[in-house]
Amino acid sequence: xRTTGTLIRVGLAAGRSTPxxxxxxxxxxxxxxxxxxxxLATVATTATYHGRETRADARxxxxxxxxxxxxxxxxxADSVGNRPVSVIFLHxxxxxxxxxxxxxxxxxxGEVLLSPELLRTGQSEGIRTRYGSFAGTILTDxxxxxxxxxxxxxxxxxxxxxxxxxLHVAAFGAGGGATGEMADQKPVTSxxxxxxxxxxxxxxxxxVVAARVGSRSRDRRSSLLQALGxxxxxxxxxxxxxxxLPAAWGTLAAFIPYAVASxxxxxxxxxxxxxxxxxxxxxxxxxxxxxVVSLLAVxxxxxGTHRVHRDGRSTRPASFSSRVPAWRLxxxxxxxxxxxxxxxxxxxxxxxxxxxxxxxxxxxxxSVVALVTRHLGSWLADNGKxxxxxxxxxxxxxxxxxxxxxxxxxxxxxxxxxxxxxxxVWTSRLGVQSQAAVATHQRIKDTVIQLTTGAMTExxxxxxxxxxxxxxxxxxxxxxxxxxxKEPWVTIEGACRDLRALHVAxxxxxxxxxxxxxxxxxxxxxxxxxxxxxxPHITVKPDSTQSLxxxxxxxxxxxAVKEAAYTLPNPSVQVQTLGGNxxxxxxxxxxNWIQLFGVIGILFILLAGAVSAAAEFVRIRHALAxxxxxxxxxxxxxxxxxxxxxxxLLIATVLTGAVTAWHSVFFIALVQEGSVSWTVLAAxxxxxxxxxxxxxxxAARAAAxxxxxxxxxxx
Length: 715
Fold this sequence. Notes:
It is built from 24 helices and 17 strands. It is of the alpha+beta class.
């Protein structure tokens, strides 16, 4: 125990002895914070999923037959902006009909309860009166998340008895909670996969970089301990003593955002998702255990990156300074193999295999870069020796002898370019239909509105027409599919005056109709072959493929059309603009989550790059300073820095750009959607090239400044 205490004190003292170690102290602090942050985010995600399922089950309807039904229940859908809204229509059959969770009393017929988030985001679209008279808000116990957009509508009149879209419900709270946001919930592995791929990998990279910062004195200390007969356990205790304090403080600092999330609901950036504080608060025991594991993982990385040779011929630590370990190259090969073979995996596992291969490949690609630059360094040293170029000779030998330096510096650029490319490719996966919907919206806005309805008589359609905004046209759309070899077509019917308003000729017109309107052109883009017919009255037949079309006189009437549709006596409609279901693609929220995780990961990797570059400046200024005495010229600093840092980093940038391009194209071929933005990739490569030049320039400048005050010392 006395020896252990002494070794721990040696490590604690070593952690605050030199400027390089102070840099390492803050680097380990940031690394521990990053790893703990991602770990706690994992705990919060898991707890949130559990809380969502519990609350969804509490409000889930128990379906029964008509004899035991206490109320009629029907689910509908709407949207506010591009965000989906879950609309639940209810009609109690008895005065003692059960209430769903979050509802304290039954609203009166024609009244509606809205979730707070729907009320907030839908104010500009008249959400208070869209479904009926506003009667209050849904309590948080009845929402899976505070950000859920949901409405409970008590219909004004009893539904028809023969309408089989209405379900008989006996009670609430016995499971069956696939309503609202739960209708399309992804498994918990989906967000965790994105979190660890885009943010977890950069956090681990930051830890590796921080563990090796200022390693010169630490390597000497490890050599001395081994020479004195110290075992791996003694070296481990010293390394842990040196890293324990910053790692512990960083881990504790990560608890601050988690504590805030446990006390207040937090909106998560671009996603618009509100994290429920009750879920985070309920998972405190798990969070405490997870942070202990996180701290141990950071300390394990510190110990693992300071091994020593076991062959008995050297007391130098195996610190990745003299060679590139073969297992790192093999690991990169395994990652590439997983990416290549992902297309042959079962369909559901393809994306998971591809993601695992991607993470492994990006984590170890910098080692391949180091191997290439190590051989390049040997060639540069030989070339510099033959031609008498001191800077090339020294820079080449340093590059050959210290490939680990290049790995740590290139790691940030390699993973950074990979994250940016993946963010771009994933967010481009909206597909051709979504792109067409965006183009349609840009051309005609929301002037063509589709309404999927039940049967409507002439009287009901006339009533609906009277509640539409002034100047609106009401048409019907029927889909016909005779089967091969004939192609399907769409018939649009309406009064002659309405068709003429769209520049469509009516029977008996002697003049040629002018060019059809932009609205008709967009209908043909979406429907294909379109025939127009004149009918005296608008009706919708039961059990048909008919739907209504409203053509507004000008943009901005979508909210008014929705209010007119949903306030019908028995609303059974779905309202959306032409192509609107693709505007609110289910992949859009996924793109927002990728953006959130990617930005966090980029922040971590930028911090790793900054720490690595700063550590290299500290090392190189001490090593290069004596050269001014030997050469008498300051130009040697710029030459050595260029050949040792700038050239290897430029090679890393080019290699990473090529691998990223191949990886992105392969991913698109795998999922069969999306596109590669060569502009974004070129911007990322250019940025890294500029960073390479800046790193070399700043290193030379740091060495030149150190040379002005360098004095010989017995070190």
